[in-house]
Design a protein that fits this description.
- The protein has 196 residues and is an alpha+beta fold.
- It has one domain: 2-Layer Sandwich (Muramoyl-pentapeptide Carboxypeptidase, domain 2).
- Helices cover 37% and strands 21% of the residues.
- A hairpin with a 6-residue loop joins strand 6 and strand 7.
- Helix 1 crosses helix 6 and helix 4 crosses helix 6.
């Protein structure tokens, strides 16, 4: 199998798993978006996000059709997605926030009202180098990536939904406690669990 064929196979597998997991909930919620809905359709009126990080919790609307971008709310989100080890804040990519808000709205419309738990957002180069398996050119360094989970939602479902909304990369790590979402090149990877 060629590398391109393998990539396409993995992408179809992940999307299928995510859509299969989501389908029953969507069928039960008549106002839920179809899996091929775009972020633009999901977020046409407002872009809100509910984040939890450790003991911190934030609900913010960083954009609305009436008012446009809300700088104060955006800065609060940047703080929530900061590098906590280095205590550094960085501008978070609006496209990443749109994917996260779209995921949360899609889940909410399918009956899951829960925060996004942030495991990692922006990272300084120093913090990134200390993490096992972190890419040297990680999108976390640019404020364009987040590692997240949602209470009560399986990571395979979350990864599949992120892939369907598709604004960049989706990393799925079976056996680990997060899904990586970024706004880099469109790609999907599945990292097998470590042996032993």
């Amino acid at each position: 199998m060629s590398p391109d064929a393998f990539f396409q196979w993995r992408r179809r597998l992940l999307i299928s798993a995510g859509c299969a997991a989501v389908a029953p909930a969507l069928a039960a919620a008549p106002d839920a978006p179809a899996p091929n809905s775009t972020l633009k359709e999901l977020l046409a009126e407002r872009r809100s996000i509910w984040l939890v990080r450790g003991k911190e919790q934030l609900e913010a609307t960083y954009w609305s059709a009436e008012r446009g971008y809300d700088r104060d709310q955006y800065l609060q989100i940047c703080w929530a997605l900061r590098d906590v080890q280095a205590d550094r804040v960085f501008p978070i990519d609006h496209g990443l926030l749109d994917v996260l808000a779209g995921l949360q709205l899609w889940l909410s419309r399918s009956g899951v009202r829960a925060p996004l738990e942030i495991h990692s957002g922006y990272r300084t180069r120093s913090t990134n180098q200390k993490l096992e398996g972190a890419a040297l050119a990680s999108r976390h360094l640019l404020g364009k990536a987040a590692d997240v989970t949602v209470p009560g939602v399986k990571n395979v479902r979350l990864a599949g939904m992120a892939s369907v909304l598709g604004r960049g990369g989706t990393g799925f790590y079976p056996g680990r406690n997060f899904v990586h979402i970024d706004t880099g090149d469109e790609r999907i990877w599945i990292t097998p669990p470590k042996a032993g």
